[in-house]
Design brief:
Elements lengths: L1 H30 L5 E2 L2 H10 L2 E6 L4 H17 L7 E6 L4 H6 L7 E5 L7 E2 L6 H12 L4 H12 L7 E3 L4 H5 L3 E7 L4 H16 L6 E7 L4 H6 L7 E6 L2 E5 L6 H12 L6 H4 L15 E3 L2 H9 L2 E7 L4 H15 L1 H6 L2 E6 L6 H6 L7 E6 L2 E2 L9 H9 L8
Parallel strand pairs: 1-3, 2-3, 6-8, 7-8, 11-13, 12-13
Antiparallel strand pairs: 2-4, 4-5, 7-9, 9-10, 12-14, 14-15
């Protein structure tokens, strides 16, 4: 009797299994964020008439389309902002066969760029990786030079770029709490301060391309308690502050070249002065800081990764996630773990012409991509948290181990 009742229940469960699995799959797909705009015959012309549109014509069953899908969504996440230069879109050709046929789609995926005001679209024929695709977009749309884009992005991210930041009692603590700061403590009536003022403004302008330091000032006649906390006893007093802590008092000449050289020395950046150029000739124990190594070209990349440990960030200057990671990456380079162990902390700009093949060879499919190399052998992509403690812990694992 029991077996007769049990058998239908088993059969029912077996029958329901595919439906449960399909429901779970559909739920997972629904949860996945879609950034690319899905077009159909009713919306296609509206988007094409409104601006530049880069369209992926695809079929859901196509293996190449499936591999391209995460990269296309990442591109859409980057590009599909308010008032975009180009909209990243897609058309499912299994649903809209006529639309795809109208645009000469004979294979999947087909990528076509529709430029505003032009009748003919441009077919993308390059490799399907992010550097090649973004380069294609920039060339076809005649976007501004990379340097101009960088300056625009930095200006948007930091409205004080290239300017002296005027601090007060409310803003001082928060401003200096993280990062590098060169601060002028002054009094308006002080003649030495008055003579320094235009040079201080020039210094900020000269360093606008260096986002890892701010040039600031605070009036000690208005905010005495802050100046007392930093033991300011004369004007002007110029202090180098890192992460809220006073590192040292500047005691050099107050002309622009000397001040700029000092900032570059504190950041570990290269300088035109012989003194800084010869720094690499000094005994290793005298060099207190190291900075992120900018790799350019195959030779530099090979040299950096062949021997020892190198942790490399592959990035694009316009990438928001890369910009967010930059100060942490700089901190990692100056960390005691990296400097004492001789670990190279480096970065590769995948949009630079001389680096494109490197990024393709290393299978960089998104930005930023972090790879660690030990004696020329590339490890699995780092996919952990991008916080400084987590990055430090990851690097520590490769110190003093010959076998991986």
């Amino acid at each position: 009797m029991f077996s007769k009742l049990f058998l239908p229940l088993v059969l029912c469960a077996i029958c329901l299994t595919p439906f449960v699995a399909k429901a779970a799959e559909e739920e997972a797909k629904a949860d996945e964020k879609q950034f690319a705009v899905e077009l159909d015959p009713e919306t296609f012309d509206t988007y094409i008439d409104a601006g530049n549109v880069f369209v992926k014509f695809f079929a859901p069953w196509c293996g190449h389309c499936k591999r391209l899908h995460p990269l296309w969504e990442q591109l859409a996440e980057i590009m599909n902002i308010e008032e975009p230069k180009v909209t990243i879109a897609k058309v499912d050709c299994t649903k809209h066969q006529t639309l795809c046929a109208d645009h000469q789609v004979t294979g999947y995926p087909t990528l076509r760029l529709f430029k505003l005001g032009e009748e003919e679209s441009v077919k993308f024929k390059g490799t399907r990786d992010l550097p090649a695709i973004t380069d294609f977009i920039n060339q076809e749309l005649n976007t501004p030079a990379e340097e101009d884009i960088n300056e625009q992005q930095e200006a948007q991210a930091n409205p004080n770029v290239g300017k002296v930041v005027d601090l007060n009692e409310d803003s001082f603590a928060k401003h200096v709490s993280s990062g590098n700061h060169f601060v002028k403590f002054f009094a308006p009536w002080c003649s030495h301060c008055q003579r320094l003022a235009p040079t201080w403004e020039e210094l900020a302008g000269e360093l606008k391309a260096e986002p890892t330091v701010t040039i600031s000032k605070i009036d000690c006649t208005q905010f005495r308690s802050i100046c007392q906390d930093f033991e300011v006893k004369g004007y002007p007093t110029l202090l180098w502050i890192e992460d809220g802590k006073k590192i040292e008092k500047y005691a050099g000449s107050r002309d622009l070249p000397t001040l700029k050289t000092y900032v570059e020395k504190m950041l570990g950046s290269p300088s035109d002065s012989n003194e800084i150029k010869d720094a690499d000739k000094q005994p290793k124990e005298e060099v207190k800081k190291q900075n992120v190594l900018q790799l350019s070209g195959e030779d530099e990349f090979t040299k950096a990764t062949t021997d020892g440990v190198a942790f490399i960030k592959f990035y694009a200057p316009w990438c928001g996630h890369c910009q967010k990671l930059q100060p942490t990456w700089e901190q990692l380079a100056t960390d005691q773990i990296a400097t004492d162990s001789g670990i190279v902390i480096a970065k590769v700009d995948c949009t630079a012409t001389e680096n494109k093949q490197i990024c393709i060879t290393q299978q960089v499919e998104g930005y930023p991509t972090l790879f660690l190399y030990k004696n020329g052998k590339r490890q699995n992509e780092y996919e952990g948290s991008r916080s400084l403690p987590e990055l430090q812990a990851y690097v520590k694992k490769f110190i003093g181990h010959d076998e991986l």
